Amino acid sequence: MKAPIKFIKPDQSAFFSILRKRVNAYFKENNISRFGNREMVVKSIILISVYLLSYLAILTLPLQAWLFLPFALLMGITKAGIGMTVMHDALHGSYSRSNFVNKLMGNCIYLLGANAFVWKVQHNVLHHTYTNIHGVDEDINTKVVVRLSRQAPLKTFHRYQHIYVFFLYGFMTLHLLINDFFKLLKYNKLGIIKDQKSTLAKEYSKLIGLKLAYLFFVIGLPILITPLLWWQVLLGFLAMHMVAGFMLSTIFQMAHIVEGAHQPMPNAEGNIENAWAIHELQTTANFAPKNRFLNWFIGGLNFQIEHHLFPNICHVHYRKIAKIVEKTAEDFHLTYNVKPTFIQGLKSHITMLKMLGRPVGQAANSKRRLSLQ
């Protein structure tokens, strides 16, 4: 697939050139690898172990039916943690310098019921290259009744999206179970599968086989070997996915659908009049940089600016290099968009959802009123 959009401000390229030199110098001077370290390995063991032990408890412990629900919820929490921490870095190739290890740990995506090939195309190729560009970045596509782009059609019910959106966020991973089939067809039509040196038949066979294996793992086996009734298993399955989907969606959207994160449109020639690195800086936001536990659990996704500029660096290093990125942005008089706390980031996301749910004039007035309060 030919790139539909180009970034055409080569005179701005000095920012990333200098930033990259400074970041590379940090790793060289401290004699550390840009890949994962012991912290990453320990974190992976903890999250995957809690997920699998919770599943094992459901299969083996002689508990009352209602007592299995907490284990299902715990699976949902750790499922989200694995997705944000282990799988995310591995599929970016930053978990380890070993391709084998990256592929192995990237396979954790199948614990979410998602597909590695589809995710890499949507996330690594489209989202990371064309961040917040309507019609290309699928992450800001309208999600049924949720409007995430200023360029998307505005409906009357969008006015209330900041109220109902968090319930819908819970369906994210359930949506992936089905939508991956349609995305694969879309990517084949666009020629992306061929560009990735694969075929539709190969990817579809893997997609079907792995989806069925996942459904047998989380639904079929519990029905077969536990005293739980089928509807009880399905209830636990739904609870697990709703928790994981809610957490994943909320964290991902707080990085791009917040105040100060741009949503630029291509010019008449179909290009973005900006350097790619500056585009990434202007379309992304950090939040809660001092929250150590949050940073640990969500895989550094609260340092999204650093992640978008250096997706090949493991997230365990983001807290350190963030100081370099912020200083370099300051040197070039560029805005480094950071919300100091999780609550402030969440409020900014809700404010942005309100603005996107109203016509431009009303959204501007709403923002003005909020600033005066």
Task: Tell me what the structure shows.
The chain has one domain (10-136, 155-362). It has 373 residues and is mainly α. 61% of the residues lie in helices and 1% in strands. The model is unreliable at 368-373 (pLDDT under 50). Helix 2 packs antiparallel against helix 3, helix 6 (161-169) crosses helix 10 (230-253) and helix 7 runs antiparallel to helix 9.
Order of helices and strands: HHHHHHHHHHHEHHHEHH
User: How many strand segments?
Assistant: 2
Could you tell me how far the N terminus lies from the C terminus, measured between alpha carbons in angstroms?
48 Å
Strand content: under 5%
Calculate Rg over CA atoms.
Answer: 21 Å
What's the total helix number? 16
Q: Give the class from helix and strand content and strand pairing.
A: mainly alpha
Low-confidence stretches: 368-373
Number of domains as seen in the coordinates? 1
Strand order of the largest sheet: 1-2
Helical content stands at 55-70%
Dominant shape: globular
The main sheet comes to: 2 strands, parallel
Mean pLDDT: 93
Brief write-up:
With 373 residues, the chain is mostly helical. It has one domain (10-136, 155-362). It contains 16 helices and two strands.
List the SSEs and their pairings:
Elements: H1 14-29, H2 38-60, H3 69-91, H4 99-106, H5 116-129, H6 161-169, H7 172-189, H8 192-195, H9 200-225, H10 230-253, H11 276-282, E1 286-287, H12 292-297, H13 304-309, H14 318-331, E2 338-339, H15 342-356, H16 360-372
Parallel strand pairs: 1-2
